[in-house]
Structure formats: structure tokens, C-alpha cells
Design goal:
The protein is built from ten helices and 16 strands. By secondary structure, it is of the alpha/beta class. It folds into two domains: 142 residues, Creatinase/prolidase N-terminal domain (Creatine Amidinohydrolase, Chain A, domain 1, 3-Layer(aba) Sandwich), CATH 3.40.350; 232 residues, Creatine Amidinohydrolase (Alpha-Beta Complex). It has a six-stranded mixed β-sheet with strand order 4-3-2-1-5-6, sandwiched between helices. A four-stranded mixed β-sheet has the order 7-8-11-16, covered by helices on one side. The longest helix is centred in the middle third of the chain and has 23 residues. The mean pLDDT is 96.
Length: 382
Amino acid sequence: MSAADLQELQDRVARVRQRMRADGLDAVCVSGPEDVYYLTGLDHQGHFALTVLVVPAEGDPLIVAREMEGTTLRVQVPWCRHVPFRDHEDPADVLVAALRDLDVRRAGLDKAGMRFPVATWERVSAGLPEVTWVDTSALVPTLREVKSPAEVDCVRRAAELTSSAMQAGVAAIKVGADICEVAGAIYSDLVCGGSEYPGMPPLIRFRDELLQEHVTWRSRTIRPGDAIFVEMSASVGRYHAPMTRMAYVGEPPPGTEVAARIAADGLDAVTRALVPGTPAGEVYAAWQRVVDEALGHDRYRRHHCGYQVGIGFPPSWVGGPHVVGLRGDATWPVRAGMTFHVLSWLLDQEPADFVLSDTVLVTEHGGELLTKGPREPIVVPA
């Protein structure tokens, strides 16, 4: 880790401490892998066991983690103190002892995360009856929303690798091939191009599975008349830049070209609307206006037309358990440095189904498209 990298991490911790002081907190317990990574740079797959970063009001942060992770922590985060637990020990007891040593009286905890089990919480809260707990679930994710120049560089590189791998996957779609070969082509291009493992595997499925939003490939032969949906992202420095395309094996259904133009116009409208200071709900409204006018009615609605994206660990690339979407009722303002996976999908509508998505960066002057690829229907010879 370079001195510049370490300084950026320590600046992030300092911003957390500013908010802690404002809320009168003695310590904050951070358990989401994305949040731990953002504050410390810890990048491993050991989060299946309890891993809690404790940021005290003063002094070095400490990480409660399995004893066997000691070498990883010494190498990656030497400026944090490792508080280990062995596999026969209850990690809750070790965390309780660590917080007691810090003389904590008022502490923050990510109560909305997936990585702090209920049983652990019950044991920790029972072991520290003198501590007042405050829900700080949004503290670090809010800081992560706006990317630094170094983070933006990672997203840009991820977008390049995503675009390349999408092209490789589409090129592997052929009559007689197995859908597994498409997955293999994508992974080969990703890994050989320099991507780390993504937070979510490529979502690859046939048209008859289109509405099964989060299922992916299993062995099946590609035949004339099929259509293959591909949604995927590379990962660079744990930062993601997803995109979606669909390839048609043979002639697409009637109306597909019209649907493709509507989807592309909708995505362009969102990109133009992503101006700093714009409420997220107005960005969604820009997309909805395009769709309503093109379809000739206002009955088609989506839960969102995109969502914030960045750091991701399995099982997703959205950065944790909550999707921060560009929804019609969202009031939070768009800010320069945010990155979005923008989705412009038409499903179960006339004239035809069509899916299109790209990653967009918000700059001081508006949205900048990062992922690249054809927007017109992709046709594979049958």
C-alpha cells in the first residue's frame, strides 16, 4: 500500500470520526465487507466468519476477526490492531471484551447489515448492558456514495473490462453451443483482462427465463429463435461497472427495433438528467416521460431506472444489502462523483421486450457514459 493510499484510507476514518463526534459516539462497529474495505482496504473472502471493524473515537482502529486471518491483516492493514478469536471461541465474547477495554458507553452499529448475526447481537448487547447503541447503518455507505478521483479511475477501468467481456460473451453465442460456453468466454475475457472476481456472477439466461431477475446460466444448448440475456460487471479494486445486453439468435420478434430505440432514448434521458443537485426522483421522471410518450400510455412503471453502484463483495455489486435506486419517490440529490447502473428495460409491453443498461458517472457537468456497446438489437446468425 502506497503512502497516498494509506492517507486516503485514514482521511475516510477521520470523516467517520467527525460524524461520531457529532453524535456523541465513543466507537462505531462496522461489519459490512464493503464498508470495512472502504475504511481499511481489507480485501479477502473471510467475511463468512464474523469480521467487525471497531473505530474508536481516538487511537488505532481494531478488527475482530478469526485468528487464522492474522497474516492477511498484518499484510493488508498493519495500521489496524487485530483482536483475534479462535474457532472454539464465541466472537461475540471477544468483541464485548474489546469494547469494554475501550470504555465504550455509546456505540454505533450497522443494524441493517447482513454480516452481524442476531445471535451475536443478542450476546453483545447482553454483555454490555451499560452501552447505549445507535443505529449507524447509513454512516459509511453515505460516505461511499461520492467517489474520489482514485475510485473513479477504478470504475472507469472496470467499465472498459465489462465492455470487452460483454463483447466476448456475445461472440460466443452460436447455434449448437452450450450457454456454459458463453459464461466461459465472459470469465476468460474478464480474468485475462485484469478483472478481480465480481461481487455477483454474470447473469446469463434465455428469454423464457427473462423475468427471473437473479438467476444465471445452467447447461442448455442454444437453438435458432433463442434470445440470450447477459448482465455482468468486471471488478477493479472491488469497484464495479455493470451493463446489460440481449442477443437474438436469428430474426428478433417484430417490434424489437422500435423497443430498442425507446430503451436507448430512455437511457440517454437519464444520462442527461444526472446533473449534480437534481433530486433522484426527477431523474426517474425523465426516463418515465420518454417511455410514456413512446408507448402512448402511462401504465408502465418500473421500481427504478437505475441504482448507485461501486464497491461490491459477494453476493452483489450494489455495495451492501440496500439498493439505493433512482425511484419516482426518491428525494436525495445527485452529486458529482456518484456512479449509477442505469437500466432502461421494457418488459411485457408492446411492441416487444428489450433490455439495456450501462454504467454512468456523474461529473460536474452531467452524466458520462462509461460502458460501451451496441444499443441496437444484437442479431446472431441462426
